Amino acid sequence: MILITSADQYIGYAITSHLAQYEPLRRQQLRILCENKQNCYGFANTGIDVRQVDYSHPNPIAHAMRGVDHIVLTIDSSVDRVERARMICNLAAHSEVSSIVCISHIGSTSHNKQYESLQEFNEIEQIVINSPCQCTILRLDFVQQYFHLWSNYAEKHRAMILPVAEDKDICPIDIGDVCKVVEMLLIDNTNYLSRPCLEDRHDGQVYMLTGPEAINGKRLVELLSLTTGFRQFKFVFSRPMDISYYLGGLGKDVLFDARLKHERSQIYHDTFQENEYRNKAYNCPSEKQIQIFLDYFNWVQHTSGSICVPHTSTLTNSPCQTLQTFFEENANSFKPRV
Considering 68, 88, 89, 270, which has the largest number of Cβ atoms within 10 A of its Cβ? Predict the structure, then answer.
């Protein structure tokens, strides 16, 4: 049995959707935790065991861990996420859970207290590592699908606005490749059911999951121009406060709100066979998520900390999806309005 935390937030939703393509697993060995069950009705309709919980009350969470072999700990964007992770790890140890796969962030390697939101990933990693359960840490670089949140700006202004200089590289990873790594770690590919335990070679390992290439602002707008057919895209190096204002205002944007409502309808009827989770903005970012974005780009700006590492392709034994492929698949979302 696999338990996925925070399945009502994007990373948890994507991993659940990916694993749900395997019907035996979906109906017998997949359980998820969520706070907002409205986002998970589609999962419940297809046989997934959905548990709505209040993370401030451990008893229902402990009950949900009965019979669980693996926990996929998706570090969410809640204010008290460190305490939540500590509680989940403690309950996992008492429930004799075999392993924890922690979905962390590449910025956890930062040792500067200036990046508080990134430091929290490091705190949670240490909690997981010190747990008696087997563990694997997956440190994600910027997820390509987060660019869906910038599509609204691209449509209106024919520009990509980021709080990082045009010549600074990032190595964004496709969420589908992240899900493939989780699948490789936890799923037996002979019967598509959960493995009884982590393979020894993965126990205690930390993997950096990055995309296949380094991308800077100049290349980013070149890809936008190439895939949308509009040649006048520009890159805007903006202040963090402007990014925060834009992302924080998405919930009030009529067109973006209409997009999210359309996506919710699609999610409810998802058959999980086409990896549709890769094409979703899913929801508006919380204040905490916005701060993670800002800290990440600030960290990249001052340390060039985003570096391509081949862990993803090595683990999945397949090439990673490029950012060009992402923009080709989602070109209509980024085309400027005329």
Answer: 88
